[in-house]
Structures are given as structure tokens and as C-alpha cells.
Amino acid sequence: MNTSKERTRDEILVLENGRILDIENERFIERGVIIVRDKLISDIGSRGEVEIPKNVETIDLKGNVVLPGLIDAHMHLTT
Question: By CB atoms within 10 Å of each CB, which of 4, 27, 36, 38 scores lowest?
């Protein structure tokens, strides 16, 4: 975590080796890579399609499935 008020570069996290569920294309992305830049997803794809920055924090997902964020919209209306 950068504690200085002025940041010199982006904070980057790489999640790799996951099975990413691509809802829009109804498929899994095998050997998937997710690049998180400043806490926002900046790139998603399979290894070889996504340029992985050097010297950044990397987490090996070990083939686990990555799902898009789900929202619990369950509610009860009363009058």
C-alpha cells in the first residue's frame, strides 16, 4: 500500500491461472488472467492474450473458477 499523497505508479495485482466465467460469451476462459489496476479490473483474457506486467504482485488461482460479481436484489415491500 502506497501511503504517500502523490503516487508514482499504478497499484497492480495479477490474478492468473483461473477459469473465468464469461457470461456475455457463455464460455469459460481457461488459464485466465485478470489484471487489477488501482482496484479496478483493467484486462481479462487467457494467458498469452493479456500482457502481464513484470514485477507486480501475482496470485495463482490454481484453476479455481472466477465468477462475475453477483448482487442480492431480494427484498420485501410492505405497506
Answer: 4
**38, three cell numbers:** 488501482
Rounded Cα distance between 54 and 38, Å, is 16
Sorted by sequence, the CB contacts under 8 Å of residue 73 that are 6+ apart come out as: none
What are 5-52's pLDDT values in tens digits? 444 467 999 999 999 999 899 999 999 999 999 999 999 999 999 999
In whole angstroms, what is the distance from residue 66 CA to residue 34 CA?
10
Torsion of CA 47, 49, 54, 56, to 10 degrees: -70
Q: Residue type for 33, please?
A: V
